[in-house]
Design goal:
The complex is a heterodimer of chains A (100) and B (259). Chain A has 100 residues and is mainly α. Helix content of chain A is 87%, strand content 0%. Chain A contains five helices and no strands. The longest helix of chain A is centred in the N-terminal third of the chain and has 27 residues. Chain A starts with a helix and ends with a helix. By secondary structure, chain B is mainly alpha-helical. Chain B contains twelve helices and no strands. The termini of chain B are far apart. The chains are: A mainly alpha (100), B mainly alpha (259).
């Protein structure tokens, strides 16, 4: 159970900048008066962040990725169950990778 | 750990223990994905030379899987601390967006409760919670519960990965490396509310793809997120605070909503 002083320093600084980001956005939005338009824009942020995580990963994976995301969408729409959709997507990427 | 269990009534957003429970339950699928990823991280961290104590400490105080994984690339002794911290900052800039988006919900609680809570906010729990809010969830406890549950899945799996230290097969061999993409995609589709959603989402996706091609690192998340926000800001129909955000809570037929 040893901690190297330099590793400790790195970890602490990582923690500081990370918490600053976590708290910073919340703090910042408190400094401005939020108009209904801004709030509307913010409601689209979660989806925008999610699609920004998904689209490049899908593109990088190529055909198996596109198939997996499509199957995930269908499974989600049919079952409304996150776990089922996830398993279906993972299964698809595995399966299509064998073929492509 | 929980920032007080009191109900605020000056807004329709409340904080209840029941909400925490519901948030935890809703985060179970995400938690499973996180645990798998945590196992891999624990293993990788050990391989680059982190001690068990360092590994656990990092995951408690930093608690940002993507940035930590990137930092492991630099983890050679003597440690290039500046590169490690700069990379962490760049990858975590997107957390600014997460906190900003959460403000309209969390602000019903006093700062002294919100700021500690923000430490456990990570993409996965946040996505589960914000998605529930799109479907009408008002309980801030749900936000805490979902994020806390993800953290509770993350830590033991880190420890397990470190202790196993090998013998775990290649996650890519069974498609597990794609787990996060599918679960993020499922969460995205789950939050689908009306045809108009496709406008900011489409803009965000296109911008993210472009940025992914042109920019180094993970700037694409920030570029896509901001593009989606700006598009929603410019073209979205403001939802009056007094109205529920959703017609039909199940969302199965959400397509005929606000279009």
């Amino acid at each position: 159970m040893t901690i190297d002083p330099n590793a400790l320093l790195a970890i602490v600084l990582m923690a500081v900048v990370t918490y600053a980001c976590r708290a910073g956005g919340y703090w910042l939005m408190g400094r401005v008066t939020m108009s209904p338009r801004v709030e509307t824009g913010l409601t689209y942020l979660p989806g925008a962040v999610l699609i920004s995580l998904v689209a490049p990963a899908m593109a990088e994976e190529g055909i198996p990725g596109v198939c997996a995301v499509a199957v995930t969408a269908i499974a989600m729409r049919r079952t409304n169950n996150l776990l089922v959709a996830m398993v279906a997507g993972i299964g698809t990427v595995w399966l299509v990778r064998q073929v492509v | 750990m929980s920032p007080g269990i009191e109900t605020q009534s000056h807004s329709r957003d409340v904080f209840t223990v029941d909400g925490v429970r519901r948030g935890m339950r809703a985060a179970i699928p995400m938690g499973i994905g996180v645990a798998v990823y945590g196992l891999v991280f624990g293993l990788l961290a050990r391989q680059v030379g982190l001690t068990f104590a360092e590994n656990l400490l990092m995951n408690v105080v930093v608690f940002a899987g993507a940035a930590q994984t990137a930092s492991l690339d630099f983890w050679t002794y003597p440690l290039p601390i500046l590169s490690i911290v700069a990379t962490t900052l760049l990858i975590n800039l997107r957390l600014i967006l997460l906190g900003a988006a959460a403000r309209p919900w969390l602000r019903a609680l006093p700062d002294r409760q919100v700021y500690p809570m923000l430490h456990v906010m990570a993409d996965e729990g946040w996505a589960v919670a914000m998605n529930a809010r799109r479907r009408g969830e008002r309980d801030i406890g749900f936000f805490l519960g979902a994020n806390l549950f993800v953290g509770l899945c993350w830590l033991p799996s880190i420890a397990a990965g470190h202790l196993i230290g090998g013998g775990v097969g290649d996650p890519a061999a069974v498609g597990l490396d794609f787990a996060f993409t599918t679960i993020f995609a499922a969460t995205l589709f789950n939050g689908y509310r009306s045809r108009f959603d496709l406008v900011p989402w489409g803009a965000a996706g296109a911008a993210a793809l472009l940025a992914w091609q042109l920019l180094p690192g993970t700037w694409y998340v920030l570029v896509g997120g901001i593009t989606g926000f700006v598009t929603g800001f410019a073209f979205g129909k403001p939802v009056p605070a007094s109205e529920p955000m959703l017609d039909g809570a199940d969302g199965a037929d959400g397509a005929d909503g606000a279009t």
